[in-house]
Amino acid sequence: MIKKLILRLCLMMAVMLSLFSCRNDLLPENNNLQNPNASRFRMVKLKDIPNVEQFIHQQSGRADLQVPLSEASLTGKDLTVGVIEISTIVETVNEGETYYVFKIENLNSGDAVYNLEVKQADGIPVTAEIIEYDPQDGTTVDFQHFTGSISSYGLDGKAISTVNYNDGLGNCSPATGVPGGNNTSEGGGINPIDLPPPNGGWYNWEEGGSNNNTVPFSNVPGDCTDIILDSHGNTQGWYDHCNNNYYPNPNVHKTTTTGEIPNLSPDCNGEGAGVIIISNEDITTCEKVKATTNNLKFKVKKDTLATKTHEDHEYGFSYELPYGGIGGEYRTLDLYPNDVFINFNAYITSQTFIHSHIDKMYPIFSPEDVIRFNEWVNWVNSNNAVPNPDNIPLPNATNISYTVVTSQGSYMLTFDGATDFNIFPAITQTQIDDLIKDYIEFINKGVTGTDSNGNYTYNTVKVEGEFLKFINKNLKMNGLKVFRINDNERTELRLENNIRKEYPCP
To answer: Which PROSITE patterns does this chain map to (predicted)?
Structure first.
């Protein structure tokens, strides 16, 4: 792994040409146009819903798309003016009523997330409410097991209602349907609803319910989008049937509860869109690592590489975002000519890189791995900074990952989007050789002996700590995150006061 990546923006044209020349039959499994569990939502543009825009202006008393919340929130926050984002607008149908959902940014919100929901009946907007999802201190916004409060406000800033949730269960009385009732299934007779089915999406799905025969938007010409869920009902991404594009790590999520209320809602009637929009930056690095490592295709490739560590050369794969009918799969990476090391030739659509280290190599990232990842982050940032008139699905630098699989364990590098990201300077072969010598001195402190095959054995905790010390000294990269990803474990490894610390990602 000595040769450097050759990452040039001119590759964009080459990739575009190769993609357009390929087949158009590689679609995600179980997500065809007739998916009976397709999502009942679609993306719209503001220009397509002028009546909704006019209604927002009327309700807020403003000519711009801002919402002043002049009164204190029900949770005690002092909410300042927020901006209604129009880059993502979701139209969804819930209980026969149409909702338009917007993300509200720039509120002094702490960990809370704010959406604007405009409800429409018979084609006429009737209500516009700001929904505040305020997680309990120390928790994140979990859309399947929410703990915290959900409140609603008018566009004049006046509070309307609030419901407290504990692990997705609202404090609503089954008898009266108002807040304050028994919030346990044993005492209140609340029966958990079924989660949405895997590999589909939603339209108020419940087994045997009347909604099962509802025609999803994606069966209507021009209505394209499905939410893709895992077997636990967690959102993995969304899929656009009109252009055969899949978008992982989404900012649009389905909300469900474990009680009688079908959606996370600020009132006990269960009204609301059942959709939440968050900013991409609201998705934590931990959640992104979970989304990648929980992906079945990633698991299969990781398990495959785990059987290859005894070979005499590396193996590797790269996941490409779908575009022009190809992608959505892992491609096998070739070795450098006459070498034992993988040639990491990234495409502009590459999002996930995973490779093996053979047993004669050290069981963690090499210096070249860290250099490659730094170059990859820089290249991805550069690609996103130039015009993209063909709307090629480019990964964000915070969504790419670089993984190594060894017989001692597996590790992943990610980037958290740090604005002070530093590009490593050009490095000569002599400098690389010097880095490797220093790296060996660090990692050898974790060697405990040799096995029957003459390969080193290791104290992996010591190896992890020495690796962190090495990159802190020689290859410090702002925004770099290091995770151990063994089996179902996702643990961030940090160096604090020169001491290795673990931060589990549950």
So the answer is: PROKAR_LIPOPROTEIN (PS51257)
